[in-house]
């Protein structure tokens, strides 16, 4: 069931005051009857239909600061979250953590990913890649004797107890080969 917005709550109360029963209002608003009943009950008890205060730590940044964080990371894609947290002060001039910066960037759709290292793919690169794929299709029918003359290698890095020192780029999905995201 969808949650009612402030406008929908007032609309539902208007329908109730117009004389519609709770069941018809709930069908009209596409919510449970109990929700409409409790909405009316809350209005009689507290004289308001707005949300009650809820627990949780208040946000340490304003919406304007969140937009500035996103803008800074869009201008400098390789800026780290810890460097950004050192530059930004939250409400009441308090320090914000790097995790706060990561959460704010994540909610705006930016993710920290390893950058594509190399030239930006051109039409010539795409053509060469297609040639490689054609080569692979031609050699798909090789037998074991022919494949024995080929050497395959695989390299993996594992970093257990310290930071790996890799640079990350803040980008949205589909921006991997964008000029400011390529190293």
From TrEMBL:
Region Disordered, annotated ranges: 46-65
SUPFAM superfamilies: Homeodomain-like
Ranges annotated as spanning the membrane: none
Signal peptide coordinates: none
Pfam families cross-referenced by the UniProt entry: HTH_Tnp_Tc3_2
Molecular-function GO term, any one: DNA binding
UniProt protein name: Transposable element Tc1 transposase
Organism listed in the record: Elysia marginata
